Amino acid sequence: MAEKTENNGSHPLKSTINFNTIVAVCLIIFSIVAFLMIPYQIEKPKLFMGRSLTNMTPSLFPRLSIVGLFILSIWYLTHSFHLKEKNLFKELGKQSFVRILVTYAVFALYAVLLEPLGFIISSALMVSFLMFYYGNRNLIIFFVVLIGAPLSIYYIFTRLLQVSLPEGILF
Fold first, then answer.
1. pLDDT category, 92, cuts 50, 70, 90?
2. Mean pLDDT of 103-132
C-alpha cells in the first residue's frame, strides 16, 4: 500500500513535485540529447595539409554550453523540491503566448538567414525587429544595440576566440 501524508492524502513524492521539478527534468533530458547530437550537427573543420588551422574543435563551445546547462539543471532539480511557488504560466494571457510564438518565429527565421546574410546582418535584423516589437522606442539605445552587439560579438568570436562565423554578403 502506498504511503499517505496527513495533509491531503496524496503520495509524499507527488506533493514535492512541482512545475520547477518538471522543467528541471526536461532540461536534463534536453541537455543529454543535445550533447549526444552535437557531433552530428557541427561540420568537421577543414584541414590544411592534414592539420587543423586552430587548436579548438568547432564543437568545444556547444559542448561547454550543454555541460553547463546539465550542471545547472541538476542543481535546479535538487532545489526544485523545496520551492513552493505557483505556476504563473497558467495565468498568462493570450498576448503573452503570441509574443512567445513571434519570438520563436523570429529566431527560426534568424537561423535560416544566418548563412546567406551572415552573422552581422542577420543578427542586426533580429535584434532590431525584437527591440521594436517589444516596445523600445529610444533611438540611442536602439542604434547602440543594433550596431554594437553584433559587431562586438563578431569581433570577440572571430578575432579573440578564433571561431569562424558566417560572413554572408558583407565580406
1. confident
2. 93
Report d(CA 58, CA 36) in Å as an integer: 15
Which residue reads 506533493 in cell numbers? 15
Contacts of 40 (CB under 8 A, 6+ apart): none
How far are the Cα atoms of 3, 6, 12, 67, 85 from residue 9, in angstroms, in the given order?
Answer: 9, 6, 9, 39, 20
State how far the Cα of 128 lies from the Cα of 147, in Å rounded to an integer. Answer: 10
Cα separations (Å) of 157 from 7, 124, 145, 166? 55, 16, 17, 11
pLDDT tens, position by position, 21-41: 888 999 999 999 999 998 888
* Residue 112 to residue 84: CA distance in whole angstroms: 40
Task: Say if residues 112 and 50 touch (Cβ distance below 8 Å).
Answer: no
- Residue 130 contacts residue 110 (beta carbons within 8 Å): no
- Show the CA angle centred on residue 65, arms to residues 63 and 66, nearest 5°: 65
